Amino acid sequence: MSINKSPLTNATLKRTLPVKMSLAVASGMILAISMPKPGWWPAAWIGLVPLLIALRSTRAKDAAICGLAAGLVYYGAICFWLTIFGYLPWFLVALKEALWFMLFAIAAAKTLQHNTGWPEYLTVSSLWTLFQWTRVLGPLGFTWGSLAHTQANTLPVIQLASITGPWGIDFLVCMVNVAFARLITDLFGKDSSKAQAIPTSSRTQGGGTRYVFALASLIITAAVWVGGHMALRCFVASDGVKVAIIQGSLPHEVNPGMEYVADAFAAYAQMSRLAAKLKPDFVIWPETTIVDEITDLQWEPQLSKLARETRANYVIGGYDASDDPDGRNYNAAHLYDRSGRKIGVYRKVHLVPYGEYVPFREQMPWLERYNIRDVDVLPGKRHNLIKTEIGKIGISICFESLFPAVSAQETRNGARALVIITNDAWFKRTQAARHHLMMARLRAVENRRYVARAAATGISAIIDPCGRVLKELPIYSQGILIGCIAPREGLTPYARLGDWFIVACVVVLVAAHLRRRS
Q: For residues 58 and 56, what is the distance between their CA atoms, to the nearest angstrom?
């Protein structure tokens, strides 16, 4: 039986574009509320639905407009904390990330025209996941606001990350969005006068098979939830070592004077001596607690003496000297054992663009108005581990904890525990500090390692291998966080294989392309 198609004329497309734009903006708004605040994580499971409906039977140009609109609303909302540095940086970051939304929308619109049934679910979800992975790459890579982050507080779901990394969570949440979008278009898309955006040829056939693919997606999601609950119940905590995380909550400037550095050392040393009464095995100070180079002649004698006095191992955030002729140094973590001996230094590899180094500084002198640092920081050469009395530990400094590949590489190389030191003072009292903590929870699950997170102004936390926050210190509170972490061995599928799920998504897309051609 032939099916009459009503091709969309230019006039019809012009009439429907405002509607599609409204749907795209709605997607951005719904997704935004899935991140703190308010952090309503279920919103992510339906946030893409309006955009996906808008993309059906949509030309590439209109799809690009819709994707850009959704991305600008979403990233503009969740990255609004960047206005601390000015409205221009905020807009440029939101625009850059929205471009990935735009590319996804263009590709998804074309895919929805040619795929029905399982290919529709798999290809759209694979496209979303691939673009999320791609935007992490390179020196300007940025992971903020992935669908995996929206689920960081949903423990059963994020257990999937130990197998697929965050990419499997992105895929799953997107697939459920595709299912809801398909259900809505099937239920309400019969009247072409009311739903010009939905091609008749893309509807599934009637009868009992009409909703089978959407139902299968929901069953897969339910299976992930059940599996996640089982993983949480099966986890058995083991004996560990006591750690003391010092959160000084001191004011911080980009280029502070020596008086500030001396005051910071005095405050942290005093709090460390108080913590020593509880006999911690490790004392952890946040990123750049010592906003100066720690050398044999400068600060190292005081730090070594403190470690001997308190009989604890120390992880200290401070700069490390270099022979650079321009006077640049490294953002580093310095480790001391109980005897005061320096046992290693980790130098931050993945620096914050325009925060720790300024690309095109000479070509853009107007950047000076944004209080950028006077001299760039040097990047470290590799993610080296530090051997301690509990075995090797992997360290991520601030921005590095956004990237799943960093912690996975450290775990694969033998890290038995993970330490994150960060200075989130730049975020002030915005929700960015909470967002940053959510990413640390994913790193714990991906590698099944305890994570000790020391943040200068909060949120410091101890996270177990299932992503549970065992203890935390609130933002802008001064205090000592005491807890236990246990060194662990063994590799999760994600730590062992890395981003294998991205390869699977590429295979799906290639197979779908070959299927269309045949």
A: 5
